[in-house]
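Researcher: Quick sanity check before group meeting.
Model: Go ahead. Protein one:
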Amino acid sequence: MKLSDYHKNFLTLLSGNGLAQVIPFAIGPILSRLYTPEEFGSYSNFMAIMGLFVIVACGRMELAIMLPQLKEDALDVVRKALFYLKWILLISLGCGLFLSDTLSQLFESPDIKGYLFMLPIFVLINGIYLIAYNWLVRMSKYKMLASSNIVMAAVMAVVNVGMGFMGFGVAGLILANLIGMATLLVMFHKTIAELWKGVKARKGMPLTEVSTRYRDFPRVNMAHAFFDVANQQFLFNLIFTSLFGVMAMGFYALSARYVRAPIRSFNASIAQVYYSEASALVREGKAFSHLMLRSVRTMLVFAIPFLVVLLLFAPDLFSWFFGEEWHEAGLYARALSPAICSQFLVSPVSMTPIICSRQKSFFIWSVSIQVSALVLIWFLGSQLSWTVMDCLWSYSVLISLFSFATLAWFYQISSKNIKAYE
């Protein structure tokens, strides 16, 4: 693609993603007065459990849809993704049936017990969405992706507010997420139907070549993604809740949710275009370090002033916007801001190791980061009895240092002329 095409696609996605983030921001003051910190904490814990299954729903093969040159090969990748989806559905069903009571007690969130039975529904909807989404990125259907984000955000907002007024509690937050994702499937129904038709036409064709060429996705990337979610959400939430309580988890969940939201618009827009363009360059045997630097520079324009605002004004902004009872969430946001901003410099280019066939190295590196961060917050909180704020500041500094080291490595591997997955 030419430079003008890059910016055109970026702005198309940015407009949709940006408006999609404005909607939850607009209703934020309403939700913070309809739902308690404990309910936000329980919802965050439910999402942490669900995330373990959703992140590996398709064996990470959905990410390989972008890579083949031939449509037939891409359809075979979809077939492989559906194969993994069937198995993850069965595992999530077993977890919902037999572990719901244990998990709800473990996370000190008894109000999520009944909704853990719905895990297979969440997995199925998210799995189909991931396949359709990556197929649309492959086809450069950026306008459709942008509009779908807006519709999903609007639907979730209406359901969240409506169920909050009716006193549904944490159920309102959970069901809003489910209904919002289901809405995306309705919007993508033509793409899903076309994919299903193509998959059926390929039925009986061998998957040996696809399984061999993209074997790192289920073998390495799936383990990597699972480990990341297990550490960043499941284990983090578990440790944080056990150390500081479900109310503190609620403050953390709301602060992380609304601090990440503004940057997420830029992040998602850049990431989608970056992955598409970088994959195309690699198929031609070209380096793409210039593309990586362009993406990081674009993020910096927004991240630096955003970081300054959070460091100076986060507690006051949270108290004014969400209500005085959420002042502590603003303190959390201030502490987390260096980590979140540095992570969002990495996130849009995080596909770099996948594109460069360096998934194993990235997995080892990521394990080191996540284990170090978890051990740090556990040790400071349980062994040294540090306060929640001291733990969060220490965690934030460590994550920031690791993030900049990651960017340096990404630049090094993206500077080489390679042919990936050949």
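Researcher: Fine. The other one?
Model: Protein two, sequence then structure:
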Amino acid sequence: MSKSPLTLYMAAPRGFCAGVDRAIKIVEMALEKWGAPVYVRHEIVHNKFVVDSLRDQGAVFVEELDECPDDRPVIFSAHGVPKAVPAAAAAREMIYVDATCPLVSKVHIEAQRHADNGLQMIMIGHKGHPETVGTMGQLPEGEVLLVETVEDVATVQVRDADKLAFVTQTTLSVDDTADIVAALNARFPNIVGPHKEDICYATTNRQEAVKAMAPKCDAMLVVGAPNSSNSQRLVEVGRKAGCVYAQLVMRADNIDWRALDGIASIGITAGASAPEVLINEVVDAFKARFEVTVEHVVTAEENVEFKVPRVLRVPA
């Protein structure tokens, strides 16, 4: 039986970003340097396949520092941690390595600088997300107020409307965040924003590629994990850009083939913590069922690389 033709649009950039690449490398290098087990506080990045493969190499994933023994190294995830966490590790004289993405660290430094200048912070982010928890935990309780929506801006209670600054989670929807920023500026005309946008280059680039690809596609799949903020945002951006059927899949096994019956074109992208091996698995699944023509939708070139911490670059 002949296969139906299918145009498969591949978004570029997609998948791993420099911060994720660095975080995974940190765990691998720590295992090489100190041997197993190495403890990791929270999933190093939000992808089950990545976490499972590091676990197989000897990484032990925990949610809190008190689950770690004093005599083994601990790594803090790419999302960042509240200031109290490294302080507690230092008090216990633990070896710890901070795998916080440098672009998240930049937001932490920004928040501290504003606080030093006497400004109360407003953070645009998702409640409970580890990055938001980590950023809010850079300052004492009450110094950072969280807003998730335009509606939240109307009700947020501030200390002094003229002494405010805002930061954002790095993995948000660029368009949704712009609406919240506009609402903040309207309500608090003197609010101080970031020198350069907090939403990271990788999040922005992946969303732009989806916007360019969405109008061409009957359907779109985003390879990523349900707890990955940037992956979920790609699904939303795809739908808003005109691709009604945009779905998140962790890997090829999760594809709902019945929902894709009769399609002539599909777009594929991946969140910043999804490895290329899972993207290739999804592509191969389509090639097994359709006569596939691959087209690349390239909107940016990425060549960013972040150094790993010095402690991992010097011999034990």
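Researcher: One line on it for the slide.
Model: The chain has eleven helices and twelve strands.
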